[in-house]
Amino acid sequence: MTKAIVDIETDGIDANIIHCIVARSYGSDKEKIWIGDECQQFGDWSRQIDQFIMHNGISFDAPILNRLTGSQIKLSQVRDTLIESQLYNPIRDGGHSLEAWGERLQFPKGNFTEFKYYSPEMLEYCKKDVELTGKLAKTMEEEGKRFSSQSYELERKVRAIVDQQQNNGFAFNIRKAMLFLSQLEDEQHELERKADEMFEPVITYSPVKKIPKSTPFNIASRKQIAERLMEKGWKPKHHTDKGSIIVSEEILEKINMEEAKMFSRYFLLQKRTGLLKSWIQECDEDERVRGRVLTLRTITGRMAHHSPNMAQVPAIYSPYGKECRELWTVSNPDTHTLIGTDASGLELRCLAHYMDDKRFTREVLTGDVHTANQKAAGLETRDQAKTFIYAFLYGAGPSKIGKVVGAGAKRGQYLISNFLKNMPNLKRLRDNITEAAKSGTVKGLDGRQLHIRSPHASLNTLLQGAGAIICKQWLVHIDERIRKSGIDARLVASVHDEYQFEVAKQDIKSFGWITKQAMQETTQTLKMKCPLDCEYKVGNTWAETH
To answer: What is the 3 state secondary structure string of 78-91?
Structure first.
């Protein structure tokens, strides 16, 4: 196999010009350079290369080279050291940039910032990046020995799909958003005016000249809110580690004072207006928002989001959740619709897989698993059982479990012990995974190593990691089937176990079938002992599709 380390320098992130290209044969010092117009020759040269080793090559170098030089680099030909670095240790101190790796490998890449025009210094910078990428590739080969090739292949494909999602963008009703923002800001201003009337300014005096100073009440100041509420008799119960009083929307809502309710309302409006402003700011001229997705930023493999954070869009049942989700839509509702699809009962299906307990699996698939858990733990109600199982899986200790039934740690410990006594396969799984976590990692569904922060979080990390891997594999199979079928469907959002697609109306049934078939294929690909399933909803806005 012919392998080449390749790096390019361009006129910017959205490149229109490639200033220079440097390629070095992997394992030797043989180097080839293209400058300016010569870069067009890269396309023909690249056809002799089987593997291109690049840092961020999937998202940057390869697409730009294909677009501007006529090369035809396939995803399968790219070995991306950025993906490897993120996969092998998502929480690596200092991050995953080539600059950070230069420091780690004691081979600083140097500093260069003038990318508008070509210069000899730019070429030296590019050559150094190629040399550094080669050193990094060797390091990644050592780190990757404990990881399966399947896990890298999955992440490589997911990165390419999500890059396309970012290019697609999510249609956003910016006019409606601005009207909604104005409505909420009007109420905010009214509450600020009301607070000014309710609370007089605080008068303080300078220590020397005794000159009075008037400090008006600031409704956005949590410190001032705490002081004024305590003056009216409130006794705070929640403090930070440093002793500061915690004042949150949730705490204020439970205080039986008119002022506290007003402050809670103000904080809610603050959060919602902040979200709306971020969405409006990120909306492009074509009225689509192209949020960034970080496919490997968490220890469990779940995706993270920014600019804006799509995982923070309020749920439909939360205050103003419906109004917020109604803003996310399709560009042409006459021809296209939004389809949301999400994994069904993912956490408990993952648990059933690892427990390998036929009775529990049967309860998950066809029975009433929460009633079964209620009996196993000795809980009074089914609702308590639902809260209990998810708290348990998220690593809650006796104190938090006790709160499920309005009791303390002693009762919580009894519930945990009783539950595990009646669920021997779960106890065995928990004990085994806690022991395995002492090494610092546990093996994920696709052969990757999941980093464990603490032993009590090991089961939760395993299950969240399984859910993330399942959803990524599912997305890959959906994408493959869309391409094969030729239907008009574009991914516009990926949030945890949910995907949103903009789909042509004539393809609704075909797309729904594809999501189901792709999930069945995922069950087979990952050799799941508990069959996976999904559901989908059709509508014009996100409020209707999740």
So the answer is: EEEHHHHHHHHCCC
Domain 174-282 annotated CATH 1.10.3210.10: no
Stated as kind and residue range, the H or E segment containing 471 is helix 458-485
Question: What pLDDT, on the 0 to 100 scale, is given for residue 380?
Answer: 93
Least Cα distance to 308 among 290, 326, 324, 295 occurs for 290
Q: Is 9 helix (H, G, I), strand (E, B) or coil?
A: strand
User: How many Cα atoms occupy the beta-carbon half-sphere of 257 within 13 Å?
Assistant: 18
**In 3D, which of 174, 189, 162, 167 has the Cα closest to residue 281?**
174
CATH 1.10.150.20 residue window(s) in the chain:
347-462
C-beta separation of 465 from 453 below 8 A: no
Q: Where in the chain is the domain with CATH 3.30.70.370?
A: 292-346+466-545
Which residue, chain included where needed, has tokens 């419906």?
A: 322
What is the β-pairing status of strands 304-306 and 292-294?
A: antiparallel
Instruction: Spell out the alpha helix ranges (H) of 70-207.
Output: 81-88, 98-104, 120-143, 149-168, 174-198
pLDDT band at 206 (very low <50, low <70, confident <90, very high): confident
With beta carbons less than 8 A apart as the criterion, state whether 338 and 502 touch. yes
CATH-assigned architecture of domain 3-146: 2-Layer Sandwich (3.30)
Architecture field, domain 292-346+466-545: 2-Layer Sandwich (3.30)
Per-residue pLDDT, 209: 64
Phi, psi of 478 (to 5 degrees): -60, -50
Topology of domain 347-462 in CATH is DNA polymerase; domain 1 (1.10.150)
Rounded CA-CA distance 423/418 in Å is: 9
Whole-number percent of the chain with pLDDT over 90? 92
How far is Cα of residue 140 from the mean position of the Cα atoms in its chain?
Answer: 24
Read off the tokens for 193: 């005016």
